[in-house]
Amino acid sequence: MWAFSEVIDGMAEACKAFNTPVVSGNVSFYNETEGRGIVPTPVIGMLGLLDDVRKVIQPGFKNAGDFIALLGATRDDLAGSEYQSVMEGQTGNRVPALDLDAELAVQAACLNAAQKGLLRSAHDCADGGLAVALAECCFSSLNRAAMGADIDVTGEYDLTTRLFSESPSRIIISFDQALLGDIEEVVAAAGCPMTLLGNVGSDRLRIETDGEEIIQLDVSEMESAWRSSLAGKLQAEAMAAGAE
Questions:
Q1: What is the pairing mode between strands 204-209 and 194-200?
Q2: SS3 assignment, position 198
Q3: Which of 44, 78, 167, 232 is the most exposed place for a label (fewest CB within 10 A)?
Q4: Rounded CA separation 244/228 (Å)
Q5: What domain range is 2 assigned to?
Q6: What's the per-residue H, E or C state across 137-182?
Q7: Is residue 171 within 8 Å of residue 123, measured between CB atoms?
Q8: In degrees to the nearest 10, what's the CA dihedral of 233, 236, 238, 242?
Q9: Would you say residue 60 has pLDDT above 90?
Q10: With bands split at pLDDT 50, 70 and 90, how would you rate the model's confidence at 214?
Q11: How many CB atoms lie within 10 A of CB 10?
Q12: Measured CA distances, 215 to 93, 110, 113, 180, 207 (Å)
């Protein structure tokens, strides 16, 4: 209960920093499924206003040759990550620290760039870290085809951290190469760090570090695995339950 109370206090602090009202929500403390408890989780409802629908920014890459960049900074935040859960079977006892000033800077940079019509795409970098977010940016949508990317993740941390750390306050953006100077001005004005990652193009996601290719995956195969994963998991659980 103390941990949950702290979560609510943290959410309230963030809402005050962003001047953002929570208009609805729900909390479930005692739900169980097949005798297994569910971790108490707050669900919040938010409302946003968009003055010009022509400035809607979607998450997927769109044009070959566009620059791909990361707003915000990657830190050593593997604890509590999807990587740690899947690969190590644990979630750790530490969560990434949230710097509200850094979050405000990242959001301001992204919002201002979008309002100026500079962005082709923007996607939060959250569950699964940078590698997973980049893969999701490659996937198709109802009005555009899938697009691959060539990425360089050279940095100060080890490779696993660079790819899968779940540091908060990060957004992946893409934009026309000719607009790099304009983007840099907006980012600098917001006091937000930005790192160029690579370019949009091809039908594969290629990631290299220090001149060595470490990932090369066909986008259609990745998207197929992503879109079918929930159905596959539910079917496997149903078959296991039937066998019992």
A1: unpaired
A2: strand
A3: 232
A4: 25
A5: 1-48
A6: HHCCECCECCCCEEEECCCCCCHHHHHHCCCCCCEEEEECHHHHHH
A7: yes
A8: -170
A9: yes
A10: very high
A11: 12
A12: 30, 28, 30, 26, 5
* Closest C-alpha among 69, 42, 236, 216 to residue 137: 69
- In which residue are the tokens 């003055």 written? 51
My answer on whether 94 and 67 are in the same domain is yes
Q: Containing H/E element for 214? A: strand 212-218
Q: What is the pTM of this model?
A: 0.90
Place of tokens 């760039």: 113
Domain count along the chain: 2
Q: Same structural domain for residues 43 and 64?
A: no
Beta bridge mates, 44:
25
- Asked if residues 118 and 135 have their Cβ atoms less than 8 Å apart, the reply is no
pLDDT digit string, tens, across residues 152-199: 998 889 999 999 999 999 999 999 999 999 999 999 999 999 999 999
